[in-house]
Amino acid sequence: MCLVFVCDEDERVTSRQPAPGACPYCGGMIQAMDVKSQWRFCFVPLYFKTKRKFYCTICARRLVIQ
Questions:
Q1: What is the pLDDT of residues 8-34, one digit of tens each?
Q2: Measured torsion, CA atoms of residues 9, 10, 14, 19, in degrees rounded to the nearest 10
Q3: Cβ distance 21 to 28 under 8 Å?
Q4: What percent of the chain lies above the pLDDT cut of 70?
Q5: What b-and-e string marks burial along 22-41, b requiring 16 or more CB atoms within 10 Å of the CB?
Q6: What is the dihedral of CA 64, 12, 35, 30, to 10 degrees?
Q7: PANTHER family in the record, alphabetically (predicted)?
Q8: Single pTM value for the model
């Protein structure tokens, strides 16, 4: 008997906008992105969350605001 669990996480960018400040690594412009994530178990959505992530537009590093 084989039991298979299918779990999946889907992330989609909902909006992008410029953020104030400059990248500490290269001095480039910072972009704020709102990312909507969805966890699914056997194709049934279980969990929704919207996160804001910050990225540099030149070096493409993810920045963490403290």
A1: 788 999 999 999 999 999 999 999 999
A2: 50
A3: no
A4: 92
A5: ebeeeeeebbbbeeeeeeee
A6: 50
A7: METHIONYL-TRNA SYNTHETASE
A8: 0.73
